[in-house]
């Protein structure tokens, strides 16, 4: 644990860092404005493209969709570039409908200087109560992960600044392989007030072949309540073997309780709150065979429509608070497993504003702060400023 003087020095350092951020942001205003204005001009063209249906043999309808997000971010962490521009996402996909009950979707991402498949699946909709999806798609766990990147209230699901020590709810689940995309099959049953999902997956993550005999199963039940409230219970279990051929592989589990409210782009409150707990089996993220974790996170935004403002149709202040702790964990130091005397934990906080130039053209400004307390390993409070401009069709 850092003492009060050290913590005060960190906060002072973060304050000076925020001051320098303001100066850097001021010098960027012209470039950001030009970039945003360009996105607004392009919106009409992309909407025209998205509205077009292309004919194909044996296909009832074929529609294209895409998203592009350019991001600028900074970090106060040492040994990292202070700032960077990147194409966070650049995705293009096609959705096809066949026979009125078959749906297929393929999407690739060309952001971050690479190319990979994000989604590739076919859905057989025999009935609302029996829909079968096969291919690569998201495992039904983690409410923030399941929120589309086209409609995220925050810029990053994992807000830990580049180079910082610590972990967030979404980041820890991703490191452990519980959430995200995988290859498998899932059944969905939909009733007026309840939706049930259950799937069976490789357990190796997206774009990965089976690397051991580990598998993953997951289930989720979502109920619709009064005034646009939705409550969900999710569970996933993942089989881990080390070495890969080990017959004594163990199953590890995670459980989520989540509540969501509101609709993207609509006036009023929008929010996500969830608590996730389970097994942390990986010493690379402060775990071992007996370690567990608990994570809490809440994201709240209020959408204010601007009917009489030229170009700008809405603004949405947002706030996020989160906390993650690992109980009885260990960590690998110099290739040796070392038990931690204190339960490592990390607090995260986000504040910012989303500006809606059009329904599918949004710019986001926010500050992310992470404050780790991880026992024997020193971790400083770190700060990141992020700006992201994106459009979707």
Briefly say what this structure is:
With 393 residues, this protein is an alpha+beta fold. The chain has helices at residues 4-51, 143-146, 169-176, and strands at residues 61-74, 83-98, 102-109, 116-127, 130-138, 181-190, 194-201, 216-224, 229-240, 250-261, 268-279, 292-305, 314-327, 330-333, 336-339, 345-358, 361-373, 382-392.
In spatial order, strands of the major sheet run 1-2-3-4-5-6-7-8-9-10-11-12-13-16-17-18
Radius of gyration: 22 Å
How many helical elements?
3
The CATH architecture classification is: Beta Barrel
At the first level of CATH, the class is Mainly Beta
| Helix share, percent | 10-25%
**Helix/strand order, N-terminal first:** HEEEEEHHEEEEEEEEEEEEE
Mean pLDDT level = 85
- Could you say what the CATH topology is called? Porin
Number of strands: 18
For the biggest sheet, the summary is:
16 strands, antiparallel, barrel
Separation of termini?
48 Å
Tell me the CATH superfamily: Porin
Outline: globular
Which class best fits the helix and strand makeup?
Answer: alpha+beta
Percent of residues in beta strands: over 45%
Task: Provide the number of structural domains.
Answer: 1
Seen as an oligomer or otherwise, the chain set is single chain
Low-confidence stretches: 1-22, 24-47
Describe the structure.
The chain has 393 residues and is α+β, with helices and mostly antiparallel strands. It has a single domain (4-51, 125-392), classed as Porin, CATH 2.40.160.10. The protein is 15% helix and 50% strand. It is built from three helices and 18 strands. It has helices spanning 4-51, 143-146, 169-176, and strands at residues 61-74, 83-98, 102-109, 116-127, 130-138, 181-190, 194-201, 216-224, 229-240, 250-261, 268-279, 292-305, 314-327, 330-333, 336-339, 345-358, 361-373, 382-392. The strands form two sheets. It has a 16-stranded antiparallel β-barrel. Strands 14-15 form a two-stranded antiparallel sheet. It starts with a helix and ends with a strand.
């Amino acid at each position: 644990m850092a003492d009060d003087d050290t913590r005060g020095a960190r906060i002072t350092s973060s304050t000076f860092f925020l001051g320098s951020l303001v100066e850097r942001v001021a010098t960027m205003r012209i470039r950001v404005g030009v970039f945003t204005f360009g996105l607004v001009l392009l919106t009409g063209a992309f909407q025209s493209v998205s509205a077009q249906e292309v004919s194909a043999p044996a296909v009832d309808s074929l529609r294209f969709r895409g998203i592009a997000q350019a991001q600028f971010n900074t970090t106060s962490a040492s040994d990292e570039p202070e700032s960077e521009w990147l194409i966070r996402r650049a995705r293009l996909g096609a959705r096809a409908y066949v026979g009125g009950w078959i749906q297929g979707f393929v999407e690739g991402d060309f952001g971050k200087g690479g190319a990979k498949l994000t989604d590739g699946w076919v859905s057989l909709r025999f009935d609302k109560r029996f829909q079968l999806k096969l291919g690569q798609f998201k495992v039904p766990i983690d409410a923030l992960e399941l929120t589309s990147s086209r409609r995220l209230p925050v810029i990053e699901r994992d807000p830990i600044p580049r180079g910082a020590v610590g972990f967030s709810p979404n980041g820890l689940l991703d490191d452990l392989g519980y959430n995200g995309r995988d290859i498998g099959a899932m059944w969905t049953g939909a009733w007026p007030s309840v939706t049930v999902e259950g799937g069976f997956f490789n357990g190796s993550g997206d774009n990965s072949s089976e690397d051991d005999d580990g598998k993953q199963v997951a289930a989720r039940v979502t109920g619709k309540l009064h005034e646009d409230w939705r409550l969900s219970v999710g569970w996933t279990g993942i089989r881990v073997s080390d070495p890969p051929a080990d017959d004594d592989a163990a199953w590890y589990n995670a459980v989520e309780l989540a509540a969501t409210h509101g609709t993207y782009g609509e006036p009023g409150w929008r929010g996500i709150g969830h608590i996730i707990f389970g097994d942390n089996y990986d010493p690379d993220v402060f775990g071992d065979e007996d370690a567990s974790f608990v994570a809490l996170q809440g994201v709240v935004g209020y959408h204010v429509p601007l009917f009489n403002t030229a170009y700008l149709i809405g603004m949405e202040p947002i706030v996020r608070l989160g906390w993650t702790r690992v109980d009885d964990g260990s960590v690998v130091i110099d290739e040796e497993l070392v038990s931690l005397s204190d339960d490592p934990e990390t607090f995260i906080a986000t504040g910012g504003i989303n500006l809606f130039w059009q329904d599918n053209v949004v710019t986001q400004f926010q500050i992310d702060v992470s404050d780790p307390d991880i026992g024997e390993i020193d971790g400083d409070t770190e700060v990141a400023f992020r700006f992201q401009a994106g459009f979707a069709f």
